[in-house]
Amino acid sequence: MALCYLVHQERIMRLRSIIFVETVIDQSSRKMEIKPGIYEHYKGHQYRVIGVAKHSETLEDLVIYEALYNNEMSKLWARPMAMFAGEVEVDGKITPRFKFLHE
Question: Fewer Cβ in 10 A, N or C end of the chain?
Answer without folding.
Answer: N
